[in-house]
Amino acid sequence: MRKIGVLDEFDKKILRHVQRDNQLTSAQLSELVGLSPTSVQRRLIKLRANKVIEADIAVVSPKAVDRPLIMLVAVELARERSDIIDRFKRAVRERPEVMSAYYVTGETDFVLVVSAIDMTDYETFTRDFFYNNTDIKGFKTTVVMDRIKASFSLPL
After folding, report:
1. Which of 16, 53, 9, 6 is nearest to 35 (CA)?
2. Contact 121, 62 (CB under 8 A)
3. Which residues pair with 70 in a beta bridge?
4. What pLDDT, in 10s, does the model give residues 109-121?
5. Cβ-based neighbours of 141, under 8 Å, separated by 6 or more
6. Signed CA dihedral, 78, 84, 89, 93: sign only
7. What is the pLDDT of residues 124-149, one digit of tens each?
8. In the chain, which residue ranges form alpha helices assigned H by DSSP?
9. Structure pTM?
């Protein structure tokens, strides 16, 4: 994997722009960063190959796809053993309702961002995912009232 220190200013400029809009063409990016379209394309290929760019995604409106309810869920495991942590990580990756997940320090072990159609849908998810899992000691849910920003952009 390529280290951030090895990125030059052109790489950083390209990354700043594609984080905001990954649909920009090489020609558009070349004008923005001051390189030829071919150089931009070569750099993008290298940035993807080295996993500096991990994925090209679209941010979808939850309301537009009938999943307007977003929850932040703090999860505490019953015990902290590597096999339990690994098992929970695998389970999280398999659930499409879980939009993002973070293994954290502090009072809880994980923080999840979960989407649902409505509270009944979320209750069904909690029964299946949390209550039926003996590795989970407890969880606390915070309902999102308004999404202010949705981004994976990093400052460069």
Report:
1. 9
2. no
3. 115
4. 999 999 999 999 9
5. 71, 72, 73, 122, 126
6. negative
7. 999 999 999 999 999 999 999 999 99
8. 9-20, 26-33, 37-49, 82-94, 119-126
9. 0.86
